[in-house]
Specification:
The complex is a heterodimer of chains A (255) and B (84). Chain A is mainly alpha-helical. Chain A contains eight helices and two strands, in the order H-H-H-E-E-H-H-H-H-H. Chain A has a two-stranded antiparallel sheet. The N and C termini of chain A lie far apart (43 Å). With 84 residues, chain B is mostly helical. Chain B starts with a helix and ends with a helix. The chains are: A mainly alpha (255), B mainly alpha (84). Chains A and B meet through helix 1, helix 3, strand 1, strand 2 and helix 5 of A and helix 1, strand 1, helix 2 and helix 3 of B.
Chain lengths: 255, 84
């Protein structure tokens, strides 16, 4: 019975996934800063800001796989989750479409640094193959989705665990805030590059913010729910592995 | 939970009359409003037909979903073995 129920859930997710992918009302182009739409100076600047995090991320990935090779499967799962979610372009209340980031799950499992690598791999895939985002703007987009989002999400997770002690609520909040903050940072990046003639940077920020962030709120809630859903699956089948993941991660971080 | 996600996605489609274009397209327009002189200085490497693009998005989701299924399968197998 249990097996049948989970099979149904899997099928439902799959169906939902393909439904939204096939039925996206508009051809690609959903989120992130488009190719060529950041002036060269800013593009370089965000690349420079992003790279140190990427290097640290690679180091932490190497460390994790070396010291706890049994966690590789979970790493793959976290990466795959980002892959799926960032392909789901969902319609939103503002009448435009956008997509979740999927970085919350991995952040909660492994901390923010490994996600800087997993997230930017997804962005690279989309920039090269899907003309979604871009190579010149990859630094900026990777910073918002793979660095800022996970770090904010992780902070929210720790805070919520401390404040409420309810892990599921904390995971929901973390995934949601990781998603929201990604697009707040995107708005900020655009505002910095394109300050409004009257009103300056802040006016621009409000403008871009209203395009991205408001669209993003219902999607952020969806993302929070989906993350908890996957977390529940994991917990049902091996709560042991999840607790040992916690333990191992602590060991890896401290050593 | 899944139901809420589906509703969140479907309700806007039903109640709001709009194009549901990408939000980055909207940002593109905003940029042109603020800085009309700005020219994108770099073009995407390849502009694929939109049909091909949606195929690639589907592929992306399929790869991800496949890996998730595989991982959960392994985890389940392990847990049922340890119980037996």
């Amino acid at each position: 019975m249990k097996a049948r129920k989970s099979l149904f859930l899997l099928l439902a997710t799959f169906g939902l996934t393909s439904y939204f992918v096939v039925n996206t009302p508009q051809p690609a182009h959903a989120m992130h800063i488009m190719e060529g739409f950041l002036p060269a100076g800013w593009a370089l600047f965000w690349w420079a800001v992003f790279l140190p995090f990427f290097i640290l991320g690679v180091r932490s990935l190497i460390k994790i796989t070396k010291e706890a090779p049994e966690l590789k499967l979970m790493l793959g799962l976290a990466g795959a989750f980002t892959f799926v979610l960032s392909a789901l372009k969902l319609p939103s209340v503002t009448g435009s479409s956008s997509h979740p980031t999927g970085t919350g799950l991995g952040t909660v499992m492994f901390g923010p640094l490994p996600m800087s690598v997993l997230g930017s791999v997804v962005l690279l895939f989309q920039a090269v193959l899907l003309a979604h985002g871009g190579l010149t703007t990859l630094g900026a987009n990777a910073f918002s989705m793979a660095v800022a989002g996970p770090f904010v999400g992780y902070a929210v997770y720790l805070l919520m665990i401390k404040a409420t002690g309810k892990p599921k609520l904390a995971i929901f909040a973390a995934a949601m805030m990781a998603n929201l903050s990604t697009y707040v940072v995107t708005s900020l990046q655009l505002a910095l590059a394109f300050p409004s003639v009257e009103g300056g940077m802040l006016a621009s920020f409000a403008k871009f913010g209203s395009i991205f962030a408001v669209t993003q709120i219902p999607l952020a809630i969806s993302e929070g729910l989906l993350t908890v859903l996957v977390w529940n699956w994991l917990q049902r089948y091996n709560s042991e592995e999840l607790t040992s993941l916690r333990r191992r991660m602590k060991g890896v971080v401290q050593s | 939970m899944l139901l809420v996600v589906i509703l969140l996605a479907l309700l806007p489609l039903l109640f709001i009359q709009a194009e549901f274009g990408g939000a980055d397209g909207a940002a593109e327009e905003a940029i042109q409003e603020i800085a009309p002189a700005y020219e994108p200085w770099f073009e995407p490497l390849a502009e694929l037909p939109s049909e091909t693009e949606s195929m690639l998005f589907a592929l992306q989701a399929a790869i991800g979903a496949g890996i998730i299924g595989y991982a959960i399968g392994i985890i389940r197998g392990k847990s049922s073995k340890s119980k037996a």
